[in-house]
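Lab notebook, design round three. We kept the backbone fixed and only want residue identities now. Task for the bench partner: fill in a sequence for the structure below.
Input structure tokens:
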């Protein structure tokens, strides 16, 4: 691909891009550690505070997603016009402090308030990070770069499960929160000193954004059929991937008799291997396909989500722990391979002046509905089925129902593939 000196990615060589991507990867991993470590701690929190699965679902999802979704759009609006490096630094510092505060909560409701703070802090990380990646990397390398970045979500999830499970097993859930909070406070200055904001070089600034109101920008995005389908697909994906899967460790503990430490390590290992293969491999393959036809990005994501449904359903149904682990591994590979091309497709249709806003708008609905509602819906279904079938079987039925929503997500991405070419905006 020919590059102009006006293109921001022309400023940086391969080694600089790699350095930036590593730091953003660490930011993403820290973000998802502090977001998802709650999953491995739910059983201990349930036992200490004597609460229902519905209340656990609110703690694991809605308490975080409410402020994350609410602040995501105004923070992204700031990021599209200001210093994205500064936004990321402030965000890392804020959520890390509040993660540590979670460990000091004396009651369930105090813990809820602390999780509000974690969600508020994390609102300023992922959209500006993806926006920077789109400026660091040319279009024909974005899906792979975003794939590497999105793999940080699974790495963070794994660290939360494995390290969090080990810490919880040895020291309890409170110490686990405090340790992860301190780790984030170490990362914040590293990000600030390493990342570079391309807009500081005047002729690489994008003044278009300053001429467009937030209402106009949002309406422009929502006026594109491809963006609407991508939005619906990612929101529905979140219902299962970030809503229901938070209960997998609890399912292993209840149905397979595992300790919190062993369950965290097993599911963490599955998530790590599956994400490494799926996110990076899926991003690279989607880039190759999209060079000849950009509509392959959402189509690849759509077929991937449809293919992983039977794998997850079998994993949840089987009484064999070995078969469950194998199916979860294959399902994770296929599931995570769909994510990079979906986000890359968003960057193709949003326009350079709305990158952070486009991702923040997606994450607003994805977190509010998917992460906010997913765990709560799962918890309600689990409690409803558990009354007649026991807590383990009730949770299994709930997760199987939630997994089926990926069919709708896959359909939405396939529809996006039909309209994407007409909606492309550089």
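Proposed sequence:
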């Amino acid at each position: 691909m020919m590059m102009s000196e006006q293109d921001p990615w022309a400023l940086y060589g391969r080694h600089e891009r790699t350095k930036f991507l590593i730091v953003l990867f660490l930011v993403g991993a820290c973000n998802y550690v502090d977001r998802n470590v709650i999953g491995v701690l739910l059983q201990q929190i349930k036992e200490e505070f004597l609460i229902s699965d519905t209340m656990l679902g609110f703690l694991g999802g809605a308490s975080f997603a409410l402020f994350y979704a609410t602040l995501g759009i105004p923070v992204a609006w700031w990021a599209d016009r200001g210093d994205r490096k500064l936004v990321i630094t402030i965000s890392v510092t804020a959520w890390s402090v509040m993660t540590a505060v979670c460990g000091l909560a004396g009651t369930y409701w105090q813990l809820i308030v602390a999780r509000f703070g974690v969600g508020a802090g994390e609102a300023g990380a992922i959209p500006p990070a993806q926006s920077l990646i789109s400026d660091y990397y040319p279009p024909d390398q974005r899906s792979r770069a975003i794939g590497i970045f999105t793999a940080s979500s699974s790495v963070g999830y794994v660290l939360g499960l494995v390290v969090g499970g080990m810490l919880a097993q040895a020291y309890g859930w409170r110490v686990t929160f405090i340790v992860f909070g301190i780790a984030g406070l170490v990362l914040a200055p590293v990000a600030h000193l390493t990342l570079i904001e391309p807009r500081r070089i005047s002729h690489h600034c994008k003044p278009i954004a300053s001429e467009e109101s937030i209402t106009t920008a949002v309406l422009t995005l929502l006026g594109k059929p491809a963006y609407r389908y991508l939005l619906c697909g990612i929101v529905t994906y979140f219902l299962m991937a970030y809503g229901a899967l938070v209960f997998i460790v609890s399912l292993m503990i209840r149905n397979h008799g595992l300790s919190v430490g062993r369950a965290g390590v097993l599911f963490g290992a599955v998530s790590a291997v599956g994400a490494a293969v799926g996110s990076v491999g899926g991003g690279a393959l989607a880039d190759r396909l999209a060079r000849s036809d950009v509509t392959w990005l959402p189509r690849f994501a759509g077929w991937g989500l449809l293919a992983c449904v039977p794998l997850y359903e079998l994993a949840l149904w089987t009484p064999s722990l070995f078969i469950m682990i194998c199916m979860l591994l294959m399902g994770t590979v296929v599931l995570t391979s769909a994510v990079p091309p979906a986000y890359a497709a968003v960057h193709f249709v949003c326009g350079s002046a709305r990158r952070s806003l486009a991702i923040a708008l997606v994450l607003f609905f994805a977190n509010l509905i998917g992460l906010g509602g997913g765990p709560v819906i799962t918890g309600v279904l689990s409690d409803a089925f558990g009354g007649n079938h026991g807590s383990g079987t009730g949770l299994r039925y709930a997760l199987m129902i939630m997994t089926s929503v990926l069919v709708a997500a896959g359909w939405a991405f396939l529809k996006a593939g039909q309209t994407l070419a007409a909606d492309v905006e550089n």
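Keep this in mind before ordering anything: The domain at 12-196+213-423 is CATH 1.20.1250.20 (Growth Hormone; Chain: A;).
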